[in-house]
Structures
1.
Amino acid sequence: METLKDKIQVLRDQFAQAVAEVRDQQALQELRNLYLSRKNGHLTRLFESMKALDPEQKPAAGQELNAIKRHVQAELDRLENKLRAPSRSGPDIDLTLPGRVSYWGSPHPVLHIKERIEQIFLRMGFSIEDGPEMETDFYNFEALNFPPHHPARDDWDTLYIDDDLLLRTHTSPVQIRVMEKRKPPIRMINPGKVFRKETPDPTHLPMFFQVEGLVVDHGITFAHLKGTLECFLKALYHERIKIRFRPSFFPFTEPSAEVDIGCTVCNGGGEECRVCKGTGWLEILGAGMVDPQVFKNVNIDPEEYSGFAFGMGIERTAMFSLQIPDLRYFYENDLRFIRQFSKK
Ligand code: DAH
């Protein structure tokens, strides 16, 4: 004989099926009547059938019937809430959760500045060259007029692989490689990674990017050097940027200069400016006329040709143009930092 328990189970299954089919308030009301109506509701009838049970069976049966009644009521109430909320007709979503933002990729700020520099020099008719990051002592030092044991090497201390091989400390070796391969006229830049024996701090990194430049032809003078760099810096920053040349020393250029721009943060007016340290100027480039000895090292006749060269750090340039106080931010790979410079 079918027990009360069986009947309850059948009812539970039927109810679950019916609930899944309810799509609107009317269907819900009909379902409510079907199960709970006082006259003929399925549950009301089950409660009535309890009267026929033996007295000792009644408490357990009552408990089971109450449990299913509570279940039915709760399900119907839940359904009612769901149907009432207008946006709940679709999938079950929580509108109070914060939305998911999908980010657009963006170039790393260093890459972005590197590309801008390339664009400017391409417009001026320069080629873009490449060179190895691991160099020999000859290319990194000797051919650039740093004799062995010359004290100038100390400023370019690096990581050695063996006595002859090292991680290049500057992009200047690419000057040598290009002049070995090609005869003038030469107008080239070379952006690339360089390495130094440095502990990272706000203004030093053991790995960073430089852009090297070299122009060699008949009759190249310091005026060409000045004109080209001024034109470049105005294109990179803005037309009214202040520029000054200071005498300096590099073994591979003579004369040599360092080029400063007016501080992009305080504009020359901030005695307490942390970026220019109150000087009003930022050192941005090293440059000079190619030393005749360098030409001799690559079999170019310095009586026939002359040229100028320059080199700049890309992170420093990015730091000044984006006003970033610490070089290390570039390589911490914190997306919150990088996304600030996204063009979106
Ligand atoms: N190689 C130099 C450095 O790393 C920068 C430099 C200075 C490059 C003067 C040049 C130059 O080509 O003419 O500090």
2.
Amino acid sequence: MGLQVERIPTLGDNYTYLIVCEDSGEAAVVDAPEAEPVIARADALDVKVTKILSTHHHYDHSQANPELAKRYDAPVYGHRSDDGRLPGLTNGLEEGDTITVGRQQARILFIPAHTKGHIAYVFDDADAVFCGDTLFAAGCGRLFEGTPEMMYEALCVKLAALPDATRVFCGHEYTASNLAFAAHVEPDNEAVKKMIGRVETLRAKAAADWHDATPDEMTVPTTIGDEREINPFMRSANAAELGERRAQKDSF
Ligand code: ZN
Ligand code: FE
């Protein structure tokens, strides 16, 4: 028995996750801007929500924390530096801390860049990382509060250290537009072309309203292994090599 991950579409293109320990029936909510769809899913699965987890303080990842915390009488986790701005925060976390969801354990990566209090939750045994708006499928989040060096550290050092099989549960369904950029940066990347095909097939089934989205149109999760091949930001460790290839091409 392991960790069940329910993808709940929220707002316009956000992913909220309900993660369930299949042994105990205990559950945690990750990044909830709306309470109603989360409550509906938890009720449908008949699970007990015991923790509210946020990757960062932006409203589209945390707005429903107080309402959910009250309903489930559950603590709210996030980076401790976000005390005062992350809605409902009760339990501040730091790099290397661990939390449990039933019998499943996550360790905390501190990955400031998109915001200065951004964290990721890594469930090593379940091959899953919840990385908010830092790493997206084929892209990365905007630098609202950090520097490019901090994003490099987050993507190419900390997240890149995870095994290839790790599933990447990110904060938004941005994959199609991210891939268009990836193809622009690396026009000859076969893995990018292949992923574009896969994503076009999935997105062709898209519901008119994201709230009605079902798993068969969701491009998330990819894996860390996928991202190593397609993500231009995660691949920036190879940037010198890429720059050389582009320079050669442009000179023709
Ligand atoms: Zn954000
Ligand atoms: Fe966001």
